[in-house]
Write a structure and sequence with these properties.
The chain has 16 helices and 23 strands. It is an alpha+beta fold. The structure holds flavin-adenine dinucleotide.
């Protein structure tokens, strides 16, 4: 039985405050004190404005209503991600990856069958957004809150101001009893067995703890700098290592999708918030320098005003070999980062905390399940990596070496090769195949959206029998038009 009495979290970005909230709530009846130390001088990364539906589960777990947190964080709904210009060879100018809702069980089989039919060369409907409620709601700019008589749950994520979300979560954590301290940690002392004993701040305050959580961002002060945990880089097949960010005062236009537009050496995001728009360009510094990237983003956004400032960031893409080492757990950017194309970072933070809480409790607050935890989280990161890598591998752009090299990149995991092999050979892509990645974070639907969206299909056969389009046969257009009558407009 452990003698865990005190947990010290280093870092007050979204990861630190999420961990503080979930642990304080979960262990509120246990004699465990939680401290969080952060340095306002260092600050937070201050980007990260899109989520997956997992964030909805976080607020449900915390019993915090949308009506409370969304206005406080200038949040809007996010129903999907729209990819513009990733595959010019596709008849679709852009395609959408909608979050799957409960009602979509009625149509996803038709989508899968149509994709299979199309892979045989027959001309059937395969535009992903037509097969998902969220795709249709996003087109019509309808709120994902259904009328009371609509008997299905809807899934969606959010867009939010990350600095405001941090402040909101800080107040909630402090109200739950977390002790907040501001100061810079300048040294870390270890026990003889290498575990962490205490942290010392620039004001010479000493923070002893039984367990430490490293949420110190890319610096990974505890895990990488002190415990020397190795970092596995994903740069072999994820080339992007930099970002330039330029928020604009663009008024909210009721949009409920994240836009991702392919540029010459990466992609640009546009995220609609209630009071402004978040914009950025994620790129590879091997293919474009920071000045040119900034210029390209300004051109893309039509920003001539030099007074609109840009922020430049470097990104470490990869993950720690062990996310939990000795008496320390890494969460957030300190544990690893996969570029934000599918906005998965907070999803990984949240699922990491949930798994940790479960396994730490099962092991009586000891390191009993450390190996199990590390395996689970490593596989989750690999699964997200593979899904992101596939976006680049499947592009059909010819405008720069960046896109060509991505397409020609042969460094792919066995799990990803297995999925692509199955698709190209015209076999049915099943959940089983997708689950060949044990930690799969993306569903069969998501893989179909990605492959069909990029038009990974052979040429159409010369002879078309003219039947077999389940989208038409099952009148799915009419079905979703009727469904959408249950949803109100975004105001
Ligand atoms: C370009 C870009 C786009 C992104 N987009 C998304 C997205 O759309 N969706 C998504 O989910 N995620 C996204 N992310 C990731 C997201 O920003 C992070 O996962 C999230 O903000 C959590 O960051 P963090 O808390 O780990 O680190 P940070 O925000 O960097 O916080 C680190 C904390 O540690 C403290 N600290 C560090 N060193 C010390 C020290 N020595 N002493 C005291 N305190 C210290 C700092 O003061 C700070 O409080 C994006 C990231 C980047 C780079």
């Amino acid at each position: 039985m452990s003698t865990l009495k005190k947990i010290v979290i280093l870092g007050g970005g979204t990861a630190g405050w999420m961990a503080a909230n979930l642990m304080a709530k979960k262990w509120k009846n246990k004699p465990i004190a939680i401290y969080l130390i952060e340095s306002p001088c260092i600050g937070i990364v201050g980007v990260g404005e899109g989520s997956t539906p997992t964030l909805k589960a976080f607020f449900n777990q915390m019993n915090i209503a949308e009506s409370e947190w969304m206005p406080a964080c200038n949040a809007t709904y996010k129903l999907n991600i729209r990819f513009n210009g990733w595959s010019p060879s596709s008849p679709l100018n852009s395609y959408s990856h909608p979050f799957k809702s409960q009602v979509d069980v009625h149509s996803e089989r038709s989508f899968f069958v149509n994709c299979l039919t199309r892979r045989m060369g027959l001309n059937v409907t395969t535009d992903p957004e037509l097969f998902f409620l969220n795709g249709v709601l996003a087109q019509k700019k309808l709120k994902p809150e259904a009328a009371i008589n609509f008997p299905f749950n809807t899934e969606y994520g959010y867009h939010f101001d990350s600095a405001l979300l941090g402040t909101f979560l800080k107040e909630k954590a402090v109200a739950l009893g977390v002790t907040h301290y501001q100061g810079k940690v300048t040294s870390v002392e270890q026990h003889i067995d290498g575990s962490i004993k205490h942290l010392v701040t620039d004001a010479n305050n000493v923070f002893e703890g039984d367990f430490f959580i490293d949420c110190s961002g890319f610096e990974a002060v505890l895990m990488r700098q002190k415990l020397k945990v190795k970092f596995t880089s994903f740069s072999d097949n994820l080339f992007n290592d930099s970002a330039v960010v330029i928020p604009t005062n663009t008024p909210y236009d009721n949009s409920i999708e994240t836009i991702s537009t392919a540029l010459s050496a990466g992609w640009a995001w546009e995220i609609p918030l209630a009071n402004r728009q978040g914009n950025g360009y994620v790129y590879s510094s091997q293919f474009i320098d920071s000045d040119k990237a900034e210029r390209e983003l300004r051109d893309h956004l039509g920003i001539i005003d030099k007074d609109v400032n840009a922020k430049h960031l470097k990104m470490n893409i990869g993950q720690l070999e062990s996310h939990w080492s000795k008496n320390c757990l890494a969460l957030g950017l300190s544990q690893g980062f996969i570029e934000p194309l599918e906005a998965t970072a907070l999803h990984l933070v949240q699922t990491s905390i949930d798994s940790f809480i479960t396994l730490f409790e099962q092991g009586d607050f000891t390191n009993k399940y450390q190996t199990t935890y590390n395996k689970i989280v490593n596989e989750r990161f690999e699964s997200v990596r593979d899904y992101i890598v596939a976006h680049y591998k499947l592009n059909s752009r010819h405008d720069s070496d960046y896109w060509k090299e991505n397409r020609e990149n042969l460094i792919l995991s066995d799990a990803l090769l297995h999925i692509l092999d199955c698709w190209y050979k015209g076999k049915e892509l099943t959940q089983e195949v997708v689950m060949s990645q044990t930690g799969s974070q993306f569903s069969l639907s998501s893989w179909h959206c990605l492959l069909a969206g990029n038009n990974v299909f052979p040429s159409l056969a010369v002879k078309q029998p003219g039947v077999g389009d389940l989208y038409r046969e099952y009148q799915l257009e009419k079905f979703y038009a009727n469904c959408s009558l249950n949803f109100a407009s975004i105001i």
